[in-house]
């Protein structure tokens, strides 16, 4: 306002108006600008709003689809779960019914076995078991060890245990007719089955033995098929004895003896005693492997087999040693076996070139006057009264009876009691190799041996054939072997033939021969297996 001083009122008025004008102009342009900005903002806001709306709609849509998908998935899972549960239930049901069927099958199988056993007893059939031994290094012709080429060796097998009653022989070789054949037996052991498993089926026969049945167990098969292993156990390298130390490897003969003594230990003391004889049939001659001369030295002494008036076979003068426990028996048998090697006529003979027969005679003492009336029927009583003898076992005759648990001497009782004895017999036979060695090129002693073995084994087959055909004449006397085994093979013994089979292809012919022998043996029907009914000695004795 100092500048205005001195100016005229008009000028001031003009200046003020101009200034007002200017201000007005400035303000209006600012307002326009502001307006524009607000408009743009509004537009932005609008588009943002519509974008947000779109976004939310989109989100809702997507949400819905997701939810739907989740729902579908959950439903699917539920369905699957249900189906799974159904399957599980079905599987459970199936498992249960399978178990039931298996149990029923096992029961039926047991029943069938029991029935089969009674049928065998009624018909007097011969039981035939078959053991297939494992492939062994010496089976390989080229001399390869098994482990080096297992696959090839496995494919070389020709005999298998299809199940525990069936042998399958399957083989196709270039240049040979292919073979695919099955054989049924009472029991078939595969190559993994132990000595334990084999003996488990033999043990019931030993109960029968003490119940009054004669029992015979005979191993048949070609050389190297496992007869001696099955009957005795693995043989020691240096001699023909078998190892007594390897308990789990022991064969039927030692185990059977242990079982017999165990069974006897459950009976009243002094009522049973056991005698042993060991013979060898070589070149159709019987050698007494327990015989001693007057100096106590052992020799291969020959014996003969005769038929008694009762039609039984007997070996007069045969050495019977009384044994009181299993280890005494084992040492005795081992001593006898070693004799086979030093035997003068047998210097070069392989063990499988002779038949070995170990016999356990079990004498049961029956006390009392009413002996005859205690038997089940008149005939049996008469038969047994006749059979029963009052001879004492050798040890007692020799008056050097040793009193011990199982077989304490009945001598003391003799004065006061009327005593009768009944004998049952367990015959254990390791036959010579059944292979039919080609005769060409074989001379001298070997030819003699082979022809004797072939003759004795075909005599055995002939005897079985004659019994099977129920011929009036059974040619027991065609060979010393069949004559010796007459009562077991044709008589009233429970007879078990243990077929031994080598599984290799190269033994196919021999295996088929053995399986054929076993099949024929199984069909043989003898008279009913007879039991010597023992009366239970009255209490206090
Ligand atoms: P064989 O008496 O029939 O001539 P061996 O019993 O001497 O035959 O058996 C021949 C070989 O095979 C022996 O070395 C024996 O130890 C072995 N062997 C036989 N059977 C079996 C088996 N089941 N398991 C293992 N080795 C066996
Ligand atoms: Mg042998």
TrEMBL record:
<keyword id="KW-0175">Coiled coil</keyword>
<dbReference type="InterPro" id="IPR036961">
    <property type="entry name" value="Kinesin_motor_dom_sf"/>
</dbReference>
<dbReference type="GO" id="GO:0008017">
    <property type="term" value="F:microtubule binding"/>
</dbReference>
<keyword id="KW-0067">ATP-binding</keyword>
<dbReference type="GO" id="GO:0007018">
    <property type="term" value="P:microtubule-based movement"/>
</dbReference>
<keyword id="KW-0547">Nucleotide-binding</keyword>
<dbReference type="GO" id="GO:0015630">
    <property type="term" value="C:microtubule cytoskeleton"/>
</dbReference>
<protein>
    <submittedName>
        <fullName>KIF25 protein</fullName>
    </submittedName>
</protein>
<dbReference type="InterPro" id="IPR001752">
    <property type="entry name" value="Kinesin_motor_dom"/>
</dbReference>
<dbReference type="InterPro" id="IPR027640">
    <property type="entry name" value="Kinesin-like_fam"/>
</dbReference>
<dbReference type="InterPro" id="IPR027417">
    <property type="entry name" value="P-loop_NTPase"/>
</dbReference>
<keyword id="KW-0963">Cytoplasm</keyword>
<dbReference type="GO" id="GO:0003777">
    <property type="term" value="F:microtubule motor activity"/>
</dbReference>
<feature type="coiled-coil region">
    <location>
        <begin position="91"/>
        <end position="118"/>
    </location>
</feature>
<feature type="domain" description="Kinesin motor">
    <location>
        <begin position="125"/>
        <end position="524"/>
    </location>
</feature>
<feature type="compositionally biased region" description="Polar residues">
    <location>
        <begin position="401"/>
        <end position="411"/>
    </location>
</feature>
<dbReference type="GO" id="GO:0005524">
    <property type="term" value="F:ATP binding"/>
</dbReference>
<keyword id="KW-0206">Cytoskeleton</keyword>
<comment type="similarity">
    <text>Belongs to the TRAFAC class myosin-kinesin ATPase superfamily. Kinesin family.</text>
</comment>
<feature type="binding site">
    <location>
        <begin position="221"/>
        <end position="228"/>
    </location>
    <ligand>
        <name>ATP</name>
    </ligand>
</feature>
<keyword id="KW-0505">Motor protein</keyword>
<feature type="region of interest" description="Disordered">
    <location>
        <begin position="386"/>
        <end position="413"/>
    </location>
</feature>
<dbReference type="Pfam" id="PF00225">
    <property type="entry name" value="Kinesin"/>
</dbReference>
């Amino acid at each position: 306002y100092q500048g205005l001083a001195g100016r005229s009122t008009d000028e001031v008025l003009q200046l003020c108006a101009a200034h007002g004008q200017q201000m007005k102009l400035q303000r209006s342009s600012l307002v326009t600008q502001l307006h524009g900005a607000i408009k743009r903002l509004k537009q932005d806001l609008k588009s943002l709003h519509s974008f947000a709306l779109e976004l939310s709609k989109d989100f809702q849509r997507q949400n819905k689809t997701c939810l739907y998908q989740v729902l579908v998935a959950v439903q699917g899972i539920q369905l699957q779960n249900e189906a799974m549960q159904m399957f599980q239930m079905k599987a459970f049901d199936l498992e249960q019914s399978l178990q039931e069927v298996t149990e029923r099958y096992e029961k039926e199988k047991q029943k069938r076995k029991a029935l089969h056993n009674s049928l065998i007893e009624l018909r007097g059939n011969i039981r035939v078991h078959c053991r297939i031994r494992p492939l062994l290094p010496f089976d390989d012709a080229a001399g390869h060890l098994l482990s080096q080429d297992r696959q090839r060796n496995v494919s070389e097998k020709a005999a298998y245990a299809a199940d525990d009653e069936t042998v399958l022989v399957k083989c196709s070789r270039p240049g040979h007719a292919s073979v695919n054949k099955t054989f049924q037996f009472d029991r078939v052991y595969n190559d993994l089955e132990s000595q334990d498993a084999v003996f488990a089926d033999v043990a019931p026969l030993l109960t029968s033995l003490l119940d009054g049945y004669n029992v015979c167990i005979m191993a048949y098969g070609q050389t190297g098929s496992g007869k001696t292993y099955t009957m005795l156990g693995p043989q020691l390298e240096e001699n023909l004895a078998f190892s007594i130390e390897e308990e789990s490897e022991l064969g039927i003969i030692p185990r059977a003896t242990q079982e017999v003594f165990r069974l006897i230990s459950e009976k009243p003391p002094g009522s049973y005693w056991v005698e042993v004889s060991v013979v060898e049939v070589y070149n159709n001659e019987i050698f007494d492997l327990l015989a001693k001369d007057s100096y106590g030295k052992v020799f291969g002494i020959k014996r003969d087999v005769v038929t008694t008036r009762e039609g039984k076979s007997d070996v007069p003068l045969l050495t019977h040693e009384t044994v009181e426990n299993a280890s005494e028996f084992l040492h005795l048998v081992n001593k006898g076996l070693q004799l086979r090697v030093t035997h003068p006529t047998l210097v070069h003979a392989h063990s499988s070139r002779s038949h070995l027969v170990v016999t356990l005679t079990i004498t049961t003492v029956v006390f009392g006057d009413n002996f005859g009336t205690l038997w089940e029927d008149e005939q049996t009583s008469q038969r047994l009264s006749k059979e029963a003898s009052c001879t004492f076992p050798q040890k007692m005759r020799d008056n050097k009876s040793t009193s011990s648990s199982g077989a304490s001497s009945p001598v003391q009782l003799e004065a006061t009691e009327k005593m009768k004895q009944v004998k049952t017999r367990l015959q254990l036979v390791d036959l010579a190799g059944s292979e039919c060695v080609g005769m060409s090129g074989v001379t001298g002693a070997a030819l003699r041996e082979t022809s004797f073995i072939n003759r004795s084994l075909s005599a055995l087959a002939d005897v079985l054939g004659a019994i099977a055909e129920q011929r009036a004449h059974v040619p027991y006397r065609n060979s010393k072997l069949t004559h010796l085994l007459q009562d077991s093979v044709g008589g009233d013994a429970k007879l078990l033939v243990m077929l031994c089979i080598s599984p290799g292809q190269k033994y196919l012919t021999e295996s088929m021969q053995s399986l054929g022998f076993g099949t024929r043996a199984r069909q043989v029907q003898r008279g009913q297996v007879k039991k010597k009914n023992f009366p239970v000695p009255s209490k206090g004795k």
